[in-house]
Amino acid sequence: MKEPLSAARRKEFEDFAAAIADGARSMSLPRFRRPVDVSLKGDASPVTEVDRGVETMLRERIEAAWPMHGVLGEEFGAEHTDAEYVWSIDPIDGTRSFISGWPLWGTLIALLRDGRPVLGVLDMPALNERWIGHVGVATTMNGEACRTRDCTSIAEATLYTTTPDMFTPDEWARFDRTSRAAYARRFGGDCYGYGMLASGYIDAVVESNLMPYDYLAIAPVVQAAGGVITDWEGRPLGLHSGSRVVAAATPQLHAALIASLASD
Hints:
Elements: H1 7-28, E1 38-40, E2 46-48, H2 49-65, E3 70-73, E4 77-79, E5 85-93, H3 95-99, E6 106-113, E7 116-124, E8 129-134, E9 138-141, E10 144-145, E11 158-161, H4 169-180, E12 184-187, H5 192-198, E13 204-207, H6 212-215, H7 218-223, E14 228-230, E15 245-248, H8 251-261
Parallel strand pairs: 3-5, 11-12, 11-13
Antiparallel strand pairs: 1-2, 3-4, 5-6, 6-7, 7-8, 8-9, 9-10, 13-15, 14-15
Helix pairs in contact: 1-2
């Protein structure tokens, strides 16, 4: 087993991640609620020149600072992801929100070590909010420590997902059954719901049809705030996890969600 990162090394990575998040914000925010060119990718999801420009900048800065590290990005794919350290980047998580003037879009940046996410940045430029989570250390929101809420049962939980459209019919049946047992279920938010979970405002997020760059930065933010995040089978998230994610404020709530989401 490799030695844990030193405090100095952790700070070096965190400072770098925060700096490139600043760079991404300086590129994306001035284009928000302004005319942008939009096209459709092969999966019919929208992409803008802002998505591509931000990811290009992030890749260039990572390559300059850490030439031996790998990179996984939404717009330009994977490079050298067998490296010990791999950066995962989603330049604009919530492109549909971005192009419709809705402020709940973000930039996601993760650092993985040996395939597991250890550092995550969830940046919400339009809201001026940023979560940074480092596994085994802490999660902060705008520099202040934050913590998940002490919710242990579905009946007490406020549960979010981005949209019903992300589920297959079988997944929807399982989500609908689970979420109707909750205190409240709400829709919308893209990556923002996970920040709200880390800060103790909501209790759970259940989603599907995600790609690794959608959740790799989220995982350290939730975990380092005291929460639990896995796939629907309870397995840790990594580069090769599937499309389904369960995030919960406590281990007890997470276990209850996993049991409720299980196939009949």
